[in-house]
Design a protein that fits this description.
The protein is α+β, with helices and mostly antiparallel strands. 41% of the residues lie in helices and 18% in strands. The protein is built from three helices and four strands.
């Protein structure tokens, strides 16, 4: 299975963004359109390998622990500023990012931390992980075949 990255920040390289089948939003974007704009900005930044919008990361990111990230590889980003209650929960892989849900800090209040989040999204993330692994294996096989073909053509020309 592809490795869930546990970096506290999104890597600055372009990544495909996907929504888990279980993706859900418990924020009213009609009442708070700035949150929808913040989510779109995060999506755009990740897809293009840009720095995330200011305020997306939690305050004191370099000096505080994130048990959900450390334990389960689930990152959270703030929508709008580090002070907003509304968060985007996601999983970061080497080539992809999977959005899980938009809600508040509730998943940090459960015991154990993230229990409800894990229960709701575990199957969908496992399915995506398996698909990612198959796609990566197919891409590697294709690349290997092209290299092999190129080497065979070169050796037959010699």
């Amino acid at each position: 299975m592809p490795t869930r990255l546990k970096d506290p920040k999104i890597q600055g390289v372009p990544k495909n963004v996907e929504h888990a089948k279980s993706f859900r939003v418990s924020v009213d974007f009609k009442k708070k359109p700035e949150l929808a704009e913040a989510l779109a900005g995060i999506y755009h930044a990740i897809e293009n390998g840009f720095a995330l919008p200011s305020g997306s990361y939690r305050a004191n990111i370099s000096t505080t622990r994130d048990e959900l990230l450390e334990t389960h590889g689930i990152m959270h980003l703030h929508l709008g500023s580090a002070d907003t209650r509304e968060l985007l929960y996601l999983v970061q892989f080497p080539k992809r990012v999977v959005f899980l849900e938009v809600t508040d800090h509730i998943h940090f209040t459960t015991d154990p931390i993230g229990h409800l989040l894990l229960n709701h999204h575990e199957k969908a993330v496992a399915e995506l992980s398996a698909r990612f692994q198959a796609e990566d294996a197919a891409a590697l096989a294709d690349k290997t075949a092209k290299i092999r073909g190129s080497l065979l053509r070169k050796s037959s020309q010699d």
